[in-house]
Amino acid sequence: MVYGKGIDSQCLWVNALELGKLLNKSGESVIIDLKIQGQNDRNVLIHEIQKDPVRDDFLHVDFYQVNMAEKIETEVELVFIGESPVVKETGGVLVKNVDKVRIKCLPGDLPSHIDVDISLIKTFDDHILAKDIKISEKVEMEIDPETVIALVVPPRSEEELSELEQKVEEDVTKVEGVVKEEPAAESKDEAKPAEGEKKA
Length: 200
Fold this sequence. Notes:
- With 200 residues, the protein is of the alpha+beta class.
- It has helices at 16-26, 85-90, 158-165, 188-191, and strands spanning 2-4, 31-34, 42-51, 58-65, 72-81, 93-96, 100-105, 114-117, 127-129, 140-141, 148-153.
- It has 2 domains: 1-66, CATH 2.40.240.10; 67-158, CATH 2.170.120.20.
- The strands form 3 sheets. It has a 4-stranded mixed β-sheet with strand order 1-4-3-2, with no helix packed on it. The chain has a 4-stranded mixed β-sheet with strand order 8-5-7-10, with no helix packed on it.
- The chain starts with a strand and ends in a 9-residue tail after the last helix.
């Protein structure tokens, strides 16, 4: 379906094979020149994709028609590039705290992704913050500049790994069981009324 500000929504049939090729080549965060038979081309942005959870076939896709003269807000993927010396030399583990960021810009300035250079992380004390990411002045990132995007933590020691592998065993003999007491069967004498006693 294609929709947008000031236009009527319209249902479309899309070639799933061509859509798959486009996404593999460019990703979701790009302006697409959508050609509709018998109509003018439209500049659109993919807003939502639904797939079959089993077969992974496309079920539905939403195209948002943009005005090239108005700023848009959308999410863009972060792509981590380079190599951290502390990862390479000490076996540290890279931790990515953020995978996507929300940005605001004109459609023509929309990046397909944003690079994050992890070679800047040289020690375990180094962090890459949102304000460290290099991006065009035409693009605004809507995220706190002090947000930690990535860091490297030391590898686990052999002792820590050994502790993780140990199974916690519980001594079931020390667990007190609950014995359900059953009421004693009523004797025949108790059931019979005493002499001179009337049954209720």
